[in-house]
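Forwarding these from the shared drive since the link keeps breaking.
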Amino acid sequence: MADRYRPKPAFLRMREGNPSKATIKEGVVIPRAVLVEPDWSAVFMTSESASVESENVRCRKMASEEWRRVVPILEVSAGIGEIDHTTVKDMCVCVARIDQAERDLSTRGLMVTAERGTVKNGASTIAGQYRSQLSRYIRELGLSPSSRSAITAPQPADADDEIWD
């Protein structure tokens, strides 16, 4: 279901054919760009602690895999530009951190022993917060089935239509 408070971008309305025939406000036109994968070692920095470093290495790998999986799709479907670099980067960080939190939950369990007794593992709260943020990124970038259902593919041009006719 579409978000009734957030207007559709102009390119989506044009792609759908603008059935209401309402005027389309272009807004800010962002030139398309091929996004360059960030240096994940700047986000997940090296650590002197071997356990922290092994987690950071895995986070770098997870973020890189997510970038390589999602960016080619977004370049074709959403027409992302350089301005969207930070949003996509943050989404990949969320995926890596969720993986890290889930691994901690699998290793230490939902309940951990602390100085005040048995308490909830903090990784479960962290995973929930990152999942909430990830769902926002997914909706904004059109990566969920419901957000994709609002997008219709453009009609292919007829073979007889020549550009120079």
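-- next protein --
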Amino acid sequence: MTTEMKCQILTMCMVQHDDKVLLLNRPDKLGFPGYIAPGGKVDFPESIVDAAIREVKEETGLTVKHIVYKGLDEFCEPNDGLRYMVFNYLATSFEGELLESPPEGELSWIHIDEALSLPMQDWFKRRFPLFFTPGTFELSSVWDGKKKETIKETIRHYEELLP
């Protein structure tokens, strides 16, 4: 186990319109194949929410207008000292037109209740319902890359506080 930590900050933004969400079907050649919400790296010194808005624009052509923080999903690999922190958002209003040739994969509006039947990464499948649950979430995984197993996993949900 290394004592030096390398941190990568990422975003994911689920775009919702009525009972559908906009998902990318990523090809194998881009990594993480299957259906996924738009997102990506946060550029320094860009704010995390600005990165989420930018990533949606770059990957879909849409400009999100109403964006709500939903939670954090972090993944740690202690052998390499890696920590990935993904800040997750839900956007329920937007403007613009979808890109005709999106860079990250084919775009589709999918009914929320049908999305989990599509091919997607296990980590995204686990996170998907949390975007639509009131309040925020925190997911934390520690992965041993040498043994190829999860050492520890924590899932927390924080309910909305009403005034």
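The first strand starts at residue 6 and ends at 17. The radius of gyration is 16 Å.

- D.
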